[in-house]
Design a protein that fits this description.
Elements lengths: L1 E6 L6 H15 L3 E6 L12 E4 L9 H14 L3 E5 L1 H10 L4 E6 L14 E4 L2 H4 L7 E3 L13 H7 L8 E5 L8 H7 L6 E5 L5 H8 L4 E5 L13 E4 L8 H8 L4 E3 L5 H4 L11 H10 L1 H7 L1 H10 L2 H16 L1
Parallel strand pairs: 1-2, 1-4, 2-3, 4-5, 5-6, 6-7, 8-9, 8-11, 9-10, 11-12
């Protein structure tokens, strides 16, 4: 099967990771894969993937961009065109390629019109496709590769000069408004141990004065952020909007308890006592930190399920099943 993956992003988030992992995984199964995306992603693909660089970060209504994309797709003559994310979906809906079309929704969207004419639609969680009226919609959760390394509790605390007996909570992600890290900094106090925020972004300017004098560390970008999960007591999300967080998947794989606002993904997986509205995050976090072992017991079945289900291989296989369903 020849598949053309199209992605309009230019960041380093979950959408971009999904785009590269899926293309590489399909190629590993023997499919012929063409990946169209920003030139900066060239090195993220295996040699078996044909990468066609095209800067889709330009205005999605740009007629030259639309013509270029259409010509590139038609020149490769795929059986399937797969639009990853809202911008790619808008472009593909506008140019109407002759191939079968699949779109993946990666976040909660108010306008889903572009997906209505597609042959199939995939959501990375039930929440992101709940409002979509489409006869052929599916849920395929994001999957991750096995971790390459891990840190012990002692190693993690030593890196950031945290006492061995102090509880340590991780919050990982880009410092952008939708992640609402300011909520965590505002509620954090000495009774909750240390909060380690890993990530970089424009919200740092807002967070730095809020964190001053509090047991909060703004660690910035850490290339081994995932390895830190095995050394922490808790992972926390205060997000206002998510699709299906990669950091959540990685925490589940690391058997790290999670407390989150009820955003898509978290709302359909986490135990009720591990979900809290923005105003109730503090008591939910304190309950888990009071007995991290009990929190792990509550989440044990979810940890086991995640280890078997939230993998790149399962994500690729489930996506390929959607393709087969519209090409038979």
């Amino acid at each position: 099967m020849k598949v053309c993956q199209v992605m309009g992003g230019s960041d380093d988030g979950g959408l971009e990771t999904h785009f590269m992992d899926l293309a590489n995984g399909l190629a590993a199964l023997g499919d012929e894969v063409v990946a169209i995306g920003h030139p900066r992603y060239r090195d993220g693909f295996d040699a078996t993937v044909h990468f066609a660089p095209l800067n889709l970060a330009r205005n999605r209504r740009d007629p030259f961009l639309r013509r270029t994309l259409r010509r590139l797709i038609e020149a490769n003559a795929p059986a399937i065109v797969h639009a990853q994310g809202g911008k790619a979906a808008d472009l593909i809906a506008a140019i109407r390629p002759s191939a079968r079309v699949v779109g993946t929704i990666h976040n909660k969207k108010s306008n889903l019109t572009s997906y209505l004419g597609f042959d199939a639609v995939i959501g990375v969680s039930r929440g992101v496709v709940a409002d979509l009226r489409h006869d052929n919609k599916h849920v395929v959760y994001n999957g991750v590769h096995p971790p390459s390394s891990s840190l012990s509790a002692a190693q993690l605390r030593q890196r950031f000069a945290i006492p061995d007996d102090e509880k340590l909570t991780l919050a990982i992600g880009r410092l952008v408004p939708a992640k609402a890290f300011h909520r965590l900094v505002e509620i954090w106090d000495d009774t909750m141990g240390r909060l380690l925020i890993v990530g970089e972004g424009p919200e740092r300017r807002r967070l730095e004065p809020l964190a001053e004098g509090k047991p909060v560390i703004l660690a910035g970008f850490q290339p081994d952020a995932r390895s830190m999960m095995t050394g922490a007591d808790l992972m926390v999300f205060a997000s206002e909007r998510e699709g299906f967080s990669y950091a959540m998947v990685e925490a589940l794989q690391a058997r790290l308890p999670i407390v989150s606002t009820p955003v898509p993904g978290a709302a359909e997986l986490l135990p009720p006592t591990h979900l809290a509205s923005a105003g109730n995050l503090k008591p939910a976090i304190k309950e888990c930190l009071a007995d991290p072992d009990a929190a792990r017991v509550r989440m044990d079945r979810l940890f086991q399920w995640a280890a078997q289900t939230l993998t790149v291989d399962k994500m690729v296989e489930a996506t390929r099943d959607v393709y087969l369903g519209i090409t038979r």
